[in-house]
Every structure is written in structure tokens, then in C-alpha cells.
Amino acid sequence: MKGPLVDPASVPDWLRPLVEISGKLDSTAFTRFTPPEDELTRAASVLILFGHGERGPDVLLLRRADTLGSHAGQVAFPGGGADPEDADAVATALREAEEETGVDPAGVRPVAILPELFIPVSKFAVTPVLAHWHAPSPVHAVDPGETAAVARVPLADLADPANRFQVRRPGTTYKGPAFTVNGLFVWGFTAGLLTVLLELGGWAREWDRGDVRDLDVALRDHLLATD
């Protein structure tokens, strides 16, 4: 299932374009990867939680603990693998978000489901769940062994050209968008998804796609600047 979960007219004007277009998208809008037919994947969900703070619309992000076995230290949306008790992808996203950030699900309204996306490095088939944070609650890193930091990041900061560039991994074919914002270094799956959502939601601004940096160097420079 993908597309709106609610009447688009019932969500705030700034979020409506994403809800309206959600049913018209397929995975190719976000990624070139598709699950190989002969390879097992694990179902997972992420919660893309949009609120409205003092500086306008924002999104909830977290930084994974440096000690984790996969995607260690990376910035991500709250989320994770499905449990047998989860009723559906929405239930998985809400449960994981509460476990990782302490967000109160009672204040969260799921509004749309995006196409399932495949992450080759972890073999996850991820369902992104868009939600409106109509009654924001305090959030924090619930378990330091899993989550290092939690932040509400204004979309205006993500769209700021000064915070955007591309990263590449020498010796590989990888090149993709990245952000340095609010003390966070965002790249990979999360940065790619945010890039498309900024465009679809009408928040994107022109930025220098010719600014391409080696990933290791950019990450090192970011860590030195934030120490």
C-alpha cells in the first residue's frame, strides 16, 4: 500500500503537496536500487515526522550510536526492522520512533505511505511513513547504545544552499547529496530521501551540485568543526 492515509485537505497547507503526490510515486523517484529476486530482504519502516516549530516546518532526525553494527554514527529518520507483533508498516514506524526518541505516538498523525525502498548494504526493504506532528512532545536519545542524539531540523536549514553539497567515495561509483546542518552530517539514504522530499514539497532552493567532496574528508572536517 502507498499513497495518502488521510484526506489531503485535512493536513496543513505546507504539508499537503507531499500527501497529494505520495500515491503517484514509485521507488525510482528516490533510488535506483531494487531488491534482487534471489536475495532475502528484511521489512523495515522509517517515520518521516514533520512538525511546525518556531522557525517553520521541521523534521525529526536522529544520529545513530557509533557502536552499532550497521550504519553506525549516521544520521537517520527514526525507524527499524519490523517485529512480528507490528500490525503494519505504520505500526513499525511509530513503535521504533517511540523506542528511539521517546516521541508520544498520540501526538503523531500518519498521513501517507511512500513506496518501499531497498537499501543494499543492510538488505532492508524500507517503507517510509509520512506523519504530521500535530501535538509535539519532548524527544531525547532514549537508549545511548542505539541513539546518540535527536533533533528537530528546520526544513529551511536543510534547503539552505550553504548547508548542501555532494559526497563521493573514492574507488566506488557512489556519489550522492549531503547536508551539514544543526551539528549533523547527513548523507546516504537519509540525505537522498530528504533531497527528493524538499523538491516535492516545494521547499528546495538552488544549490551547487558541482561541490563534490570526498566522503571521508568531509566527515572528518565536520567532526573537527563540531568537537
From TrEMBL:
Domain Nudix hydrolase: 39-175
Molecular-function annotations in GO: coenzyme A diphosphatase activity; metal ion binding
Keywords: Hydrolase, Magnesium, Manganese, Metal-binding
Cofactor(s) it depends on: Mn(2+); Mg(2+)
Alphabetized PANTHER family for the sequence: MITOCHONDRIAL COENZYME A DIPHOSPHATASE NUDT8, NUDIX HYDROLASE
Protein's name in the database: ADP-ribose pyrophosphatase YjhB (NUDIX family)
Annotated organism of origin: Amycolatopsis thermoflava
